[in-house]
Design brief:
Elements (H helix, E strand, L loop, with lengths): L1 H17 L8 E2 L7 E4 L7 E7 L4 E6 L4 E5 L6 E5 L5 E7 L2 E9 L2 E6 L10 E7 L8 E7 L5 E6 L2 E2 L2 E2 L4 E6 L5 E8 L2 E6 L5 E6 L4 E8 L4 E10 L9 E7 L5 E6 L3 E6 L4 E7 L4 E8 L5 E7 L5 H6 L6 E5 L14
The structure holds 2-acetamido-2-deoxy-beta-D-glucopyranose (2 copies).
The site of one 2-acetamido-2-deoxy-beta-D-glucopyranose has 4 residues, from loops.
Length: 340
């Protein structure tokens, strides 16, 4: 009995290690003992931008194309939502000390949204503070986050024509409380994941089609980035499927990267450029990640069903859901709110 169990465990371990082309990198699946990967919402369209609000212990996220800002209460499992009329909602982040206010990138507008997230609201009232990418028809806001000084950093993506995003038409911006957008990186194609190191001295950034994770020196007071370098390259690591999308960082300084069209989240050490672990989700379009929960030990993962064929939707019935992964043994960093 003992030997059979041992053999079973060994086989599980071996298959976990060799299941991915990158050798010796453990892969965590729904069936890996010691971990849980479960959907904690119903399937949405294009769920994205998870943001853990530590004060309220709630997870905010967006459903981009349905223009929804959503809030999950992980204790009760209930989700409330509101609609933002300005355009596809790439990102929304709470405003510090204003429980009913959010800043959101909707269409090309940077807006202030008012919503009591205890309730569903058919249409939130919005106030436009800035509009970006004027002259680039079809561009829209995509991912964004707030830095340690309460400033918003986020970028746009180019227009999608016949299913192809037009390259080098978008930009990455910083917006402080004066609401003047400062161009930080331009041009970019699909501005996506971003994260700051715990020490607040490195900024990590993803422009999806490059299939690279880049790093910059970060100066937190002035909010300046410099000295761009590549810390992880999909090509060099033989990652053949998908592109990097949203990203977060843990207290050990390691990155967690959602892979759109790749079924996985990659755990990468940006100091060594090594792939540490792979988490396989039951959805192909993995869009973003954020740590949450009382000790910031749960990894929330957003996924998309938008654009999947009927066949793929049948194979991936949970695509579009927010998933919760436990058992990783690491802690995330607190997410910042926007300071008005
Ligand atoms: C909000 O709407 C969802 C359906 O989209 C429903 O399940 C939920 O109970 C509603 N919540 C409240 C507080 O009305
Ligand atoms: C990628 O594949 C090549 C060729 O098989 C191999 O030499 C190289 O070590 C691989 N790189 C990684 C990081 O696995």
């Amino acid at each position: 009995m003992f030997d059979i169990l041992n053999l079973f465990l060994n086989l599980t371990l071996i298959s976990a290690i060799f299941a991915h082309p990158s050798k010796n990198v453990p892969e965590i699946t729904e069936n890996t003992p010691g971990f849980t990967i479960k959907a904690v919402t119903k399937p949405f369209g294009l769920s994205e931008g998870p943001h853990w609000d530590h004060g309220s212990q709630k997870l905010f996220f967006v459903d981009i194309m349905n223009q929804l800002l959503c809030r999950l209460d992980p204790i009760s499992g209930s989700v409330t939502h509101t609609y933002i009329e300005n355009g596809p909602v790439g990102v929304a982040i709470p405003v510090e000390d204003e429980p009913n206010k959010f800043v959101a990138g909707s269409g090309t507008d940077f807006t202030l949204v008012t919503w009591d997230s205890e309730f569903n609201l058919t249409k939130a009232s919005t106030q436009v503070f800035a509009t970006v990418d004027k002259g680039h028809k079809g561009n829209r806001w995509n991912d964004g986050k707030v830095d340690s000084s309460g400033r918003f950093w986020g970028g746009t993506m180019g227009a999608e024509i016949n299913g192809k995003v037009q390259p080098n038409q978008a930009s990455f911006y910083r917006i402080g409380k004066d609401f003047v957008p400062h161009v930080e990186i331009s041009p970019v194609s699909i501005s996506n994941g971003l994260a700051w190191s715990k020490e607040d001295d490195i900024f990590y950034y993803i422009d999806s089609p490059t299939r690279e994770i880049t790093a910059y020196d970060y100066e937190p007071v002035s909010g300046t980035i410099s000295n761009k370098r590549i810390v992880f390259d999909f090509e060099k690591n033989n990652i053949t499927e998908g592109v990097p999308d949203g990203m977060t960082i843990d207290t050990d300084g390691n990155l967690w990267i959602a892979v759109f069209n790749g079924h996985v989240v990659l755990n990468v050490n940006p100091k060594t450029g090594k792939l540490i672990r792979i988490i396989r989700l039951p959805a192909k379009r993995v869009t973003s990640v954020a740590f949450g929960g009382p000790n910031l030990q749960k990894l929330y993962v957003t996924t998309s069903s938008y654009g999947l064929s009927e066949e793929e939707k049948k194979q991936q019935p949970k695509a579009g859901s927010v998933f919760e992964v436990t058992g990783l043994g690491v802690n995330g960093l607190l997410a910042n709110s926007f300071q008005l």
